[in-house]
Amino acid sequence: MILCHSPGRSYYVARILVGVVFALITFKLLFPSFLSLPLPQSSRGQKTEVIPRPPASEIPIPRQIWQIFFAPADVEILDESVIFASEWVFMSPGYGFHMFNELDAAEFVDTTFLPSRPEIPATYHALRNPAAKSDFLRYLLLLARGGIYTDLDTQPLTRPEDWLPASNRRDTSLIIGLESDSTRDRAAGFATEPVQFCQFTIAAAPDHPLLRRMVDRTIAALQDLARRQNTTLDQAVLGDEDVIKASGPKGWSQVVLEWIKEMDASVTGLHDFQGMDEPRYYGDVAVLPVESFRSDYLCGWGLRWGTEKSRKCLVRHYFAGAWRSSKNTGSPGAGGG
């Protein structure tokens, strides 16, 4: 007796797959151009240059991120929706990260500056205004350690490693962005100058002379405020405008402008930075267009309608304004935002 076994299901599946593969091969041989995708232009007879990530020893600006949080005395619940520390860590592989509170900030200032420049700790500890204290501390951190300082309410949209081309990073010791540009920013009414340089995000090499100049200017401006009030700095009342001029973006913009004018005689004023579309380099200083650190001036997705400029959006600032005082006379809220 001969027993005949019918082919199983797997046999028919295999036959179907073989048939499909054979049909595809035949079709491709008969119609070779069908569904063929064009190669990118750089791949057709050209080699795409791949610039490797520069080693730490070859770039002046350390791979380190700093933030400051001075807890406000009158706020019990913080708006965590505008605190992006975890995103900075995620977007910055290979970077160190440290958020300073009041205690370790005081220890850093004393340990770093008391032996050589006692006027720096004296000024820092005399400040009662958290905004001015936060401003002063960011300059001190970058002066002593270098790296990237960024406010709590800033959100990274691009890896810091990609802020500049690798070839430029080797020669850049300070990265500054515009905070406002009256020719392009419809919300620039908060600024009284044609442009203003931001200090909510700064990248710097340690001991940059521009930062030394800003530290010296801040000390002098704060002491001058105290003298005009006929009191000591620890008793001086600093309003919002006092802070902006002494340690904030107005004071910072003046120092940056003075420095760049020394680097480039063709620069005569802040108006020379209006309408910037591309980064500019002045010696070892890179100046970025307004959308680089102010993507909020574009639409909610960091895009400028009808253009291809969104590639320049690096950081979004939410302007939480926790530092502002309610009456413009006393101590504002949290520093670092």
What would your notes on this structure say?
This protein is α/β, with parallel strands linked by helices and 337 residues long. The protein contains ten helices and ten strands. Strands 1, 2, 3, 5, 6, 7, 8 and 9 form an eight-stranded mixed β-sheet that branches. Strands 4-10 form a two-stranded antiparallel ribbon. A hairpin with a 2-residue loop joins strand 8 and strand 9. Helix 3 packs antiparallel against helix 4. The longest helix has 22 residues.
Radius of gyration: 28 Å
Would you list the SSEs in sequence order as H and E? HEHEHHHEEHEEEHHHEEHE
Structural class: alpha/beta
Largest sheet data: 8 strands, mixed
User: What share of the residues does DSSP label as strand, in percent?
Assistant: 5-15%
What's the number of helices?
Answer: 10
Mean pLDDT: 80
The parts where pLDDT drops under 50 for at least 5 residues are 1-7, 25-51, 299-310, 322-335
Principal-axis shape equals globular
The tally of beta strands, per DSSP, is 10
Distance between the termini: 91 Å
| Helix-residue proportion | 25-40%
